[in-house]
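Worked Example 4.2. Read the sequence first, then its structure tokens.
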Amino acid sequence: MDRKLETPKVKDILVTKVIAFRPDFTSFDAIRNFNEHRISTAPVVNEQNEVVGYLSESDCIKCLSNCLFHDETRYRTIDNIMSKKVAIAENDWDMFELESFFISNHLRSAPVVDSENHLLGIVTRRDALKALQNCMEGREDYKREIKTPVELNMKERIKMIVGRR
């Protein structure tokens, strides 16, 4: 039996509908969009859609903490808080090269760009995991049932504990 596994490439799994920011956005613009779109990172692009930075929740938390607790206004735009050294994922990497890249750079996502640094999309660890799941489910010998996770409502448990005091 031939068990050769064809692993998808980054270009096969990258997300092309991307939430991106411009350098002149405020940190509050970014925070609102992170929360609204339920994302944790985003590329920062100039008017030509070239990647000029990358912004994370951590960048925003640090900024917001300084603004709230130290009444600072020096970080008005994300240009001041974004990472300007951007780790780029390559279009032709397979999943294993991508995961090695994520691990060695301590990342969970990365932009993918063309040869002129224009944003093509973004790829995440979740995208890689989903692609590997699809590969596994496509194998003939993958016949076992997937168990359903336990769903817990901890609010009810907390109410019970607090009510006993």
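Now turn to a second chain, presented in exactly the same format:
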Amino acid sequence: MPKPRLKLKTHKAAQARFHITGTGKLVRLKGHRSHLRRKKSQKNKRLFNQKLVLDPSFAKKIRPLLPYGVP
């Protein structure tokens, strides 16, 4: 009888930081969003709201941490 396959565990920190788009790309938010916001310009603060596509070389390292995608 074959051995049952083990379920893979999702890395919860990666799940909180990265999202998968409909086309399968990994996106992230910028860091330094909450610290010392008062002295940053309005334009600079707006740029923090944009999601950035991860570099493919870095996405290759993150993808195994999210075996079933991100809900």
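Notes for the reader: The chain has three helices and three strands. The chain has a mean pLDDT of 91.
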